[in-house]
């Protein structure tokens, strides 16, 4: 075991844990409990909002899988990763103040609250809740596995122990502190992600003898590494551009991201968050993926892409700095799972239980139930993760694309197109998820684009066609 | 029940359009530099600060330029509107469910 590395990691885990626990003391009782537990009372300021959006979005693939792919494919993959810059401002700009204002008017706590009020349809609610629970549960399991593996590979403890440490620390603060604990810890985790990026990038450039030297060696090894087309010329412009949908504008459709667009305090917070968020997401993506490419010169011949970052950090940095760098992917994983865990439990409690099973549930009971369901969901993910499936990045993308195709139009057009109705939304949800799963399994990357593109187009058509059938239109002008 | 729409929505609509236009410009910048400059034969590549020019402009300058553009957009074109004014300001203006 390498104590130099473990100490900063342990310090990070313990600090996050303590901060998470500390914030849970602010949880209010009384009628505002749900607002407070699942949305931190809509009080987020600009910095915290930016950080929680970036950190929730940035996952293990930003720090492990992505740089590993960049190591193999070269600058072309960094170009692809930079499609994510747009997530820093697009979601907040498009959902915008209207979403935040509508959410306040209808007292929405979850994304589904918004869909329910907008479409007034039981089926929209049920289908949405179902896809959130199913897809995000599997995404969460993949991230959980990633978290366990990370701790395992850095510290040498067994996978099960690592998983236990990881889930233990996340679960306790999410259950106790709810959304506020999640976003405050996200802010810390986001900062750790930025610092880790600076350190690893600087360390790799120094170890590689400067950028000019690194580029020269890459070019000598395989000139394609410094083209936009990838080392094996597999990255066509169309394919790379299609990632602007998957990891760029399509992110609007991810419930764990869009719910944040109803959680901020005021217009100023939103404005600041757009600037900070764009900078931070651009910086992390550019820096981490570049470090992956540069790592090829410093540490050639790594076969398993997921091992690039950990090995690189240990190679080019002194132990304690490597510990800080390796805290970054852990932070990314934690900040994603904590948000998703809370979202899944809010879907079960608020969207299903309170909406349909017991609308008049007592405050005290709802409170207990919220803690209870969050714990049960968390523990079942833990149980699933003990015997883990492989291919972290793809499992993650499966949930990603499916949710984007399902939700992007019911949210965006629900907000901006008055004619949109429940039939449209239901059609869009079904066609989006259905076509994504079908294409992903049968015709992945059809016509040279990422699988997500067609389902998003199809669900748009479904939404529009569905909305031209006779259906209930909103009979208030809240929307 | 349908009277005028909430005035704040008009602000929001305009900002959503601006955000979308910025994203489209961002894509064009990114694509044009990457495949315009990067599509040439490698022998003809020029380098800036050690990076191939296509990468420098598309990814690095793209990051800097669009962060600044977001700042400009938000600072000068986005409007601050109050979020909670239903009861005070809008009584009788039709914003009732």
How confident is the prediction overall: mean pLDDT of chain B? Answer: 85
Measure the end-to-end span of chain A.
58 Å
Strand order, largest beta sheet of chain B: 1-2
Portion in helices of chain A: over 70%
Let me know the largest β-sheet of chain B: 2 strands, antiparallel
Instruction: Enter the CATH topology name of chain A.
Output: Sodium/glucose cotransporter
Number of strands of chain A: 0
Derived from helix and strand composition plus strand pairing, the structural class of chain A reads: mainly alpha
Pfam families (chain B): DUF997
Protein name (chain B): YhdT family protein
InterPro entries (chain B): DUF997
Transmembrane segments (chain B): 16-34, 54-74
Describe the structure.
Chain A: GO terms for molecular function: pantothenate transmembrane transporter activity; sodium ion transmembrane transporter activity. Chain A: InterPro entries: Na/Glc_symporter_sf, Na/pantothenate_symporter, Na/solute_symporter, Na/solute_symporter_CS, Sodium:Solute_Symporter. Chain A: The chain crosses the membrane at residues 6-23, 44-64, 70-95, 123-145, 157-179, 191-215, 235-254, 275-299, 319-344, 365-386, 392-417, 424-441, 447-465. Chain A: It is a multi-pass membrane protein. The complex is a heterodimer of chains A (479) and B (97). In chain A, 76% of the residues lie in helices and 0% in strands. Chain A has 479 residues and is mostly helical. Chain A has a single domain (3-393), classed as Sodium/glucose cotransporter. In chain A, helix 9 packs across helix 15 and helix 15 (319-357) packs across helix 16. The N and C termini of chain A lie far apart (58 Å). The model of chain A has no long low-confidence stretch (mean pLDDT 88). The model of chain B is unreliable at 87-97 (pLDDT under 50). Chain B has a domain at 26-82. By secondary structure, chain B is mainly alpha-helical. The longest helix of chain B has 32 residues, at 7-38. Chain B has helices at residues 7-38, 53-77, 86-89; strands at 47-48, 51-52. Chain B is built from three helices and two strands; from the N terminus they run αββαα. Chain B has a two-stranded antiparallel sheet with strand order 1-2. In chain B, strand 1 (47-48) and strand 2 (51-52) form a beta hairpin. The interface between A and B is large, with 54 and 57 residues.
């Amino acid at each position: 075991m390498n104590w130099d590395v473990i100490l900063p990691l342990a310090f990070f885990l313990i600090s996050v844990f303590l901060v998470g626990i500390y914030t849970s003391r602010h949880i209010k009782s009384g009628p505002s409990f749900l607002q407070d537990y699942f949305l931190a009372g809509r009080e987020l300021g600009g910095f915290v909002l930016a950080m929680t959006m970036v950190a929730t979005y940035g996952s293990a693939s930003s720090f492990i899988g992505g740089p590993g792919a960049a190591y193999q494919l070269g600058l072309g993959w960094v170009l692809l990763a930079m499609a994510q810059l747009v997530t820093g401002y697009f979601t907040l700009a498009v959902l915008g103040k209207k979403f935040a204002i509508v959410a306040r008017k209808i007292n929405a706590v979850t994304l589904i609250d918004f869909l329910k009020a907008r479409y007034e349809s039981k089926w929209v609610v049920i289908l949405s809740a179902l896809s959130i629970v199913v897809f995000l549960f599997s995404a969460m399991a993949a991230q959980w596995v990633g978290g366990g593996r990370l701790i395992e590979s850095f510290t040498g403890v067994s996978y099960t122990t690592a998983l236990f440490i990881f889930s233990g620390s996340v679960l306790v603060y999410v259950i106790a502190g709810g959304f506020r604990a999640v976003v405050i810890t996200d802010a810390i985790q986001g900062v750790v992600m930025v610092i880790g990026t600076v350190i690893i990038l600087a360390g790799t450039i120094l170890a590689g003898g400067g950028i000019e030297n690194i580029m020269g060696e890459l070019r000598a090894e395989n000139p394609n590494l410094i083209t936009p087309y990838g080392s094996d010329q597999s990255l066509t412009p169309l394919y790379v551009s299609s990632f602007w949908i998957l990891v760029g504008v399509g992110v609007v459709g991810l419930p764990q991201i869009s719910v944040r667009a109803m959680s901020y305090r005021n217009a100023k917070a939103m404005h600041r968050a757009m600037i900070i968020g764009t900078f931070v997401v651009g910086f992390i993506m550019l820096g981490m993926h570049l470090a992956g490419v540069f790592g090829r010169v410093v540490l050639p011949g790594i076969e398993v892409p997921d091992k690039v970052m950990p090995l690189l950090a240990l190679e080019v940095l002194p132990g304690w700095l490597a510990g800080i760098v390796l805290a970054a992917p852990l932070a990314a994983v934690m900040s994603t799972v904590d948000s998703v865990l809370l979202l899944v439990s809010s879907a079960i409690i608020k969207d299903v239980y309170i909406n349909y099973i017991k609308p008049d549930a007592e405050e005290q009971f709802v409170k207990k139930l919220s803690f209870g369901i969050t714990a049960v969901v968390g523990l079942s993910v833990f149980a699933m993760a003990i015997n883990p499936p492989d291919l972290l990045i793809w499992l993650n993308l499966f949930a990603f694309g499916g949710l984007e195709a399902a939700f992007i139009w019911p949210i965006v057009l629900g907000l901006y197109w008055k004619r949109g109705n429940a039939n449209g939304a239901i059609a869009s949800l079904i066609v989006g998820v259905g076509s994504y799963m079908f294409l992903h399994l049968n015709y992945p990357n059809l016509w040279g684009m990422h699988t997500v593109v067609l389902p998003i187009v199809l669900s748009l058509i479904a939404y529009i066609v569905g909305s031209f059938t006779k259906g209930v239109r909103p009979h208030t002008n809240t929307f | 029940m349908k009277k005028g729409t909430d005035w704040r929505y008009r602000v929001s609509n305009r900002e959503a359009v601006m955000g979308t236009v910025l994203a489209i410009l961002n894509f064009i910048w990114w694509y044009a530099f990457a495949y315009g400059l990067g599509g040439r034969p490698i022998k003809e590549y020029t380098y800036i600060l050690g990076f191939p020019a296509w990468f420098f402009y598309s990814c690095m300058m793209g990051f800097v330029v669009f962060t600044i553009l977001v700042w400009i957009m938000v600072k000068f074109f986005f409007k601050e509107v109050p979020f909670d004014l239903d009861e005070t300001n809008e009584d009788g203006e039709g914003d009732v469910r």
